[in-house]
Amino acid sequence: MPRRRPHPVSPRLLPGLLACALALNAFGSRAAALRLTPGEDLVGQLDVVSTRHEDTLPDIAYLKSSGFREIRLANPGVDTWLPGEGTEVLVPSRYVLPQVPREGIVVNVPEMRLYFFEPATKGQPAMVHTYAIGVGREDWVTPHTVTKITAKTKDPAWYPPESIRREHAAAGDILPKVVPAGPDNPLGAYAMRLGLQSYLIHGTNNPYGIGMRVTHGCIRLTPRDIADLFHRVKVGTPVRIINQPVKVGVAAGRVYLEAHPRFAEDKLTFDAQFRPVVEQLLTALAGRPAQIDWNRVRAILVNPDGLPTEIGRVQEGTLAASPGAGPTR
């Protein structure tokens, strides 16, 4: 079988590859711990891996703590199941931080990503740990709210609610009232209860569902990631579950926009207009003037790919549109 030529990961990405310091490396688990820089809204750096003939995009996503949807969006045109030998795959591991207080756990539902903000300790900087997640299906949406961790359980048993038992029974799958800990338990090896009835942050026995809308409203992590998060989080940790498909941030004097596809139920709330961007832009700039390429903003909103893209720069002057080519990632 002939060797497949590397596929360009994104037509908007190429000019910014060197600036983003992409690392072309062998497979391995990407560290989820990212250092927070005061006054900066971006963390992480993009990564590229070269595939082996047996690899799939879900394989790479799992190894790199990415999600199914985000790795597909970052690699348009790459075959999900047969990327081929030697294909370069972009790992979307650079993030604009959500616009919320940077404390405790933040779950950005449309991004399908969880952030845990770990405060600075003596001699150690503040860190953020980030993990891809699975979230609630359209008919079992994950609620947007503020709550906290109320309990932690290792090797939890699962007590499926009657509504879920009825749903499974209608499909010919009879669930027991209790599913004990073990390989058949969909909660995996760790669970953290939220201050919401029946909602958990938990592991899974099906890690390839991460980055999809597959749960009954709970927040699902890979076995590796839930083990890491479980041992970092304390009971009482605040949890913010938010709905920010569009995120704007500033880093090193540059303004970035990161947009994710809207969920079907949110299309009326988040249309492809500028209002959500302007609202976040005002917060991110905090009174500083900036030159913004609104043509670039429009293109990103029409075709969101989940990757932070430079849309302007902080400068002296007034907020204005910038015609022409505009900045890159």
What does this structure look like?
- The chain is α+β, with helices and mostly antiparallel strands and 329 residues long.
- It folds into three domains: 20-96, no CATH class; 104-242, Beta Barrel (L,D-transpeptidase catalytic domain-like), CATH 2.40.440.10; 246-321, no CATH class.
- 16% of the residues lie in helices and 27% in strands.
- The protein has helices spanning 57-63, 68-73, 162-170, 223-232, 275-285, 294-302; strands at residues 23-25, 33-35, 42-44, 47-50, 88-91, 94-96, 104-108, 113-118, 127-132, 135-136, 145-154, 190-194, 200-202, 213-215, 219-220, 238-242, 246-251, 254-259, 290-292, 309-314, 320-321.
- The strands form five sheets. The protein has a nine-stranded mixed sheet, covered by helices on one side. It has a five-stranded mixed sheet with strand order 17-18-20-19-21. A three-stranded mixed sheet has the order 1-4-5, covered by helices on one side.
- Strand 12 and strand 13 form a beta hairpin.
- The longest helix has 11 residues, at 275-285.
- The model is unreliable at 1-28 and 318-328 (pLDDT under 50).
What's the SSE blueprint?
Layout: E1 23-25, E2 33-35, E3 42-44, E4 47-50, H1 57-63, H2 68-73, E5 88-91, E6 94-96, E7 104-108, E8 113-118, E9 127-132, E10 135-136, E11 145-154, H3 162-170, E12 190-194, E13 200-202, E14 213-215, E15 219-220, H4 223-232, E16 238-242, E17 246-251, E18 254-259, H5 275-285, E19 290-292, H6 294-302, E20 309-314, E21 320-321
Parallel strand pairs: 1-4, 7-16, 10-14, 13-15, 19-21
Antiparallel strand pairs: 2-9, 3-6, 4-5, 7-8, 8-9, 11-12, 11-16, 12-13, 17-18, 18-20, 19-20
